[in-house]
Amino acid sequence: MGTAGQGQFQRWKELCGGEGGCEVQITARDERLFEWLREVRLADAEALRWALAAADGRSEPVTARRAQQWIARGVEAGVIEKARPIFRDGSVVWLSHAISGRAAPNLFRATTRHEVAVSAISARFMAAGYAWSRDRQPASTREHAADGIARRGERVERVEVELTAKTLARYQSILLGHARWLTEGVKRVVYVGTAAAMRAVSREADKWVHPAVRDRLVTVAALDERGHIEGSLDALWASSTDDLTAGQVVEEQTREAPPTLAAPTLPVWGGRD
User: Fold this and answer.
1) Which is more confident, 239 or 237?
2) Does the N-terminal or the C-terminal CB of the chain have fewer CB atoms within 10 Å?
3) 31 phi and psi angles, rounded to 5 deg
4) How many Cα atoms are found within 13 Å in the side-chain-facing hemisphere of 245?
5) How many Å apart are CA 17 and CA 102, to the nearest integer?
6) Average pLDDT in the 109-121 region?
């Protein structure tokens, strides 16, 4: 949790520790969930099912009832706010101003659907034993921040959530950047999105990602247009050494990983030898 968030959370605990206290006790697990919500900003109940499991060290989601109880408890304590946007089947939640110091999100923004989808994917990674964090802010407009960084031990993966395809020129810049990361210690770049967006990513990756690292940029068609997970993600973390077939939608299979590459200086790959 960032310094500002820690300050807000500490002040909230001090208020609860005063005369009268709070009716709801905040646990260490709750603090882990608050830290995750600070990272992803918005989440729905389905994502919380997986995030709650991860906070308890479990790999299977808790029941929908338990997730709803946690949300109701947080709303009662004044640390969680919720609303039901028109593009979702249920409510989305976020940290209240009292604990985060942030204003309530604008649920009508074009990026809201994407933010909720990112939280869903991040919760799945956490339940699989990964730590999740936001990427650093780009130093310039030419650089690109991934939607999240997933870490498990020494393994680092950059994760992108794609609901609609980007322009071809934008993909060139982003994919060349990902290719550089893959020569500098990043194990995989994982794209999760709609079938149409994944076809576009795969096509452009074949043009702009050098063949030496192309097989470590993986596309997973598992989201619908609203950002709901509708496909299986299990093959992504079948083992800590899996390596997935290049340019293909992930199915329930993995193969042995190739030897770890050093970090050579690669020529710009433009689809030609």
Assistant:
1) 237
2) C
3) -60, -40
4) 8
5) 23
6) 93
Q: What are the structure tokens assigned to 82, written together?
A: 């919720």
Is a pLDDT exceeding 80 seen at residue 107?
yes
Report the 10 Å Cβ neighbour count for 104.
Answer: 12
Site of tokens 């030898």: 273
Of all residues in the chain, the percent with pLDDT exceeding 70 is 76
Burial of 241 (0-12, 13-18, 19+ CB in 10 A): exposed
Query: Which residue do the tokens 């967006």 mark?
Result: 197
Lowest mean pLDDT among 19-23, 37-41, 172-176, 189-193: 19-23
**Whole-model pTM?**
0.80
Q: Who has greater pLDDT, 109 or 142?
A: 109
- Cβ(175)–Cβ(209) under 8 Å? yes
Beta carbons of 163 and 193 less than 8 angstroms apart:
yes
Q: Which amino acid type is present at position 78?
A: G
- Rounded Cα–Cα distance for residues 180 and 84 (Å): 40
Q: Which two tokens stand for residue 71?
A: 């949300």
Question: Distance between CA 105 and CA 58 in Å, rounded?
Answer: 30
CB 179 within 8 A of CB 208: yes
